[in-house]
Design goal:
about 110 residues; alpha+beta; two-stranded antiparallel sheet; 5 strands; about 30% helix; globular
């Protein structure tokens, strides 16, 4: 099996209790948050030389990740929390930085 190094850093994002409580707050007849169905998401960012300070890693991309996570639950931005800061993001999500990424797939990466 060929193992190709990918020149990216991966951010693994997992919801914490505030996100789960927000997702479960809607009384719209839709589903409730199920941790067995809603696992972590991975986001690739430009390669980062020093990943020890997660805030430095997130400064450029936390807002896009936050909006993706909110949009994946409810598509109406008016229903999203109005206060969206890096501090709130870190309260709502656990973020793990993976600084070495390899591609073990056989198929080419599709960036649709």
């Amino acid at each position: 099996m060929t193992m190709e190094f990918v020149n990216r850093t991966a951010l693994v994002v997992r919801p914490k209790r505030p996100y789960i409580d927000w997702a479960d707050s809607f009384d719209d007849g839709g589903p409730k948050y199920d941790p067995d169905l809603h696992q972590a998401k991975g986001f690739l960012v430009d390669e980062v030389a020093d990943t020890r300070d997660i805030k430095k890693v997130l400064r450029r991309c936390w807002h896009a990740i936050f909006e993706e996570e909110l949009n994946s639950w409810i598509r109406d931005p008016d229903a999203w929390p109005h206060r969206r800061t890096l501090k709130v993001f870190l309260e709502w999500f656990e973020v793990e930085v993976c600084d070495v990424v390899f591609d073990l797939g056989k198929e080419p990466i599709n960036c649709d």
